[in-house]
Design goal:
By secondary structure, the protein is of the alpha/beta class. It contains nine helices and 17 strands. α1 (32-41) packs across α7 (202-216). The protein is globular and about 55 Å long.
C-alpha cells in the first residue's frame, strides 16, 4: 500500500552478470531484519541472495534471525560499515561479488549507520566490481517518528532523506491521527514514495523500492540526484572510501575496559552472555528494567535468553516503539545486546543479572 508517491516501472534494469545491491536501512529497532525476512519468505529466497548484516555491538544477533537455508549470511560486527568497518565491508563485497557472484546482495547496516557515507561506499564498489545499487529502502517505525527525529536530529533524518522509498512499520496499532502525524514527519524530510509495510508483502516493498530508484534517476524525478551521486567526494577532492570521514554519524568506535562499544554523542553498546535462566516473568521484569534505567536511555535491546523451563531460548526485543519476547528456534548460546545513550554498564549488568562480555 503506497500512501503517497508513485513507484512506476518495473524496477532497476538488470544486466547479465551484474549483482544487484539492495540497501535496507533504518534507525535502531525500526524493523529492518523483519522486512528482510518477509522478502525472503515471499520468494526472494529463491534467488539465493547474500545477506550482509552489520551489527554495532560485539555480539551478533540479527544474522541468527535469518532462517537457515534461505540465504547466505555475512556478518560484520563491532562497529559500522560506514566508518570503522568500511575496509572490512569493501573486502566483504570483493569476496561476495568476485567469488560467489550472486544475483543480489541485501545489505542491512546497523541502525547507527550514516546513509550518505554508505551510499558513497556502494558507489565506489560499483566502479570496481560488477555490481550496482538497485534499491534504497528506509524502514521507519511509524509509532515514534517525531520522537526519534527530535532525539537523534539530522543523524536520524538522513536515513529518511537519502532513501528512495520509506517503508513504515508498526502502523497496525495506530489510529488515523497518529498515522497522519507520522506521515507529516516523513514528508518534512522527503517526497519519495511511502509504503505501509504492515499492509504489503516483502517483495511488493522491494519492487516499489526498485522502481522508485529507477524513477529517481529519470529527468524531473522527485528525489533530485541519484542516491550516491557526489557523495564520494568532499570539498572537491576524491574521498578514500576505506578511511574514516567526519561526516559519518560516528567517530572511531572503541572498546572500554568492560568491553562495551561506544561512539560520540553518548551512544554505546553493551554485550552480555547471561548464564542464568529466565521465566516469562523474569523476561518481562528485565525489559521493564531496561526501559526504566536511571542513567541515560536504552534505545535497543535484542538477543536470546535461556528459558527456565528448559525449552530452548526466548527471543527478546526492545525498541522505542515497544518490547516483546517469544520462543525462538535459535539453538546457540544465550546473548543480549543493549544499545543506548548515556548508559551505565554496571546498572545494566544488575538488570540483566550477568557481567558484560569481556
Amino acid at each position: 500500500m503506497l500512501f503517497e508517491g508513485d513507484a512506476r516501472g518495473g524496477g532497476s534494469p538488470s544486466r547479465a552478470g551484474v549483482t544487484k545491491v539492495d540497501l535496507v536501512v533504518g534507525f535502531l529497532g525500526a524493523g529492518k531484519t523483519t522486512l528482510v525476512n518477509r522478502m525472503l519468505a515471499d520468494g526472494l529466497a529463491g534467488e539465493r541472495p547474500v545477506i550482509v548484516e552489520n551489527e554495532f555491538g560485539d555480539v551478533a544477533v540479527d544474522g541468527d534471525l535469518i532462517p537457515e537455508g534461505e540465504a547466505q549470511v555475512r556478518t560484520l560486527a563491532s562497529g559500522c560499515i560506514c566508518c570503522t568497518l568500511r575496509g572490512s565491508f569493501l573486502d566483504c563485497l570483493d569476496e561476495v561479488v568476485g567469488t560467489l557472484a550472486p544475483s543480489r546482495i541485501v545489505i542491512e547496516p546497523t541502525g547507527l549507520a550514516n546513509l550518505p557515507d554508505l551510499l558513497a561506499i556502494v558507489r565506489d564498489a560499483s566502479s570496481r566490481l560488477p555490481c550496482c545499487l538497485n534499491s534504497v529502502t528506509s524502514v521507519v517505525d511509524a509509532s515514534c517518528v517525531a520522537e526519534m527525529l527530535e532525539f537523534a536530529g539530522d543523524f536520524y533524518a538522513s536515513q529518511v532523506r537519502d532513501a528512495t522509498l520509506v517503508a513504515l512499520t508498526h502502523t497496525a496499532g495506530l489510529g488515523a491521527p497518529e498515522l497522519e502525524e507520522a506521515l507529516r514527519a516523513v514528508r518534512s524530510l522527503t517526497s519519495c514514495p511511502v509504503m505501509d509495510v504492515d499492509a504489503a508483502g516483502g517483495l511488493e516493498v522491494l519492487a516499489a523500492s526498485e522502481a522508485a530508484l529507477a524513477e529517481a534517476a529519470s529527468p524531473g524525478a522527485w528525489g533530485g540526484p541519484l542516491p550516491g551521486d557526489g557523495l564520494g567526494e568532499k570539498d572537491g577532492e576524491p574521498r578514500d572510501s576505506r578511511g574514516h570521514d567526519e561526516r559519518c554519524g560516528h567517530d572511531a568506535h572503541g572498546h572500554d575496559a568492560h568491553g562495551h562499544l561506544h561512539a560520540p554523542g553518548g551512544f554505546g553498546s553493551f554485550s552480555f552472555l547471561p548464564g542464568r535462566t529466565f521465566s516469562e516473568e523474569d523476561v518481562d521484569l528485565l525489559l521493564e528494567g531496561l526501559r526504566r534505567v536511571r542513567s541515560g536511555r536504552v534505545l535497543r535491546a535484542k538477543g536470546f535468553l535461556a528459558r527456565k523451563d528448559g525449552c530452548g531460548l526466548e527471543h527478546v526485543e526492545l525498541a522505542a516503539g515497544g518490547a516483546g519476547h517469544e520462543r525462538s528456534a535459535y539453538r546457540g548460546d544465550p546473548k543480549l545486546v543493549v544499545i543506548g545513550r548515556g548508559l551505565d554498564g554496571d546498572e545494566l549488568a544488575r538488570i540483566v543479572g550477568a557481567e558484560p562480555e569481556p
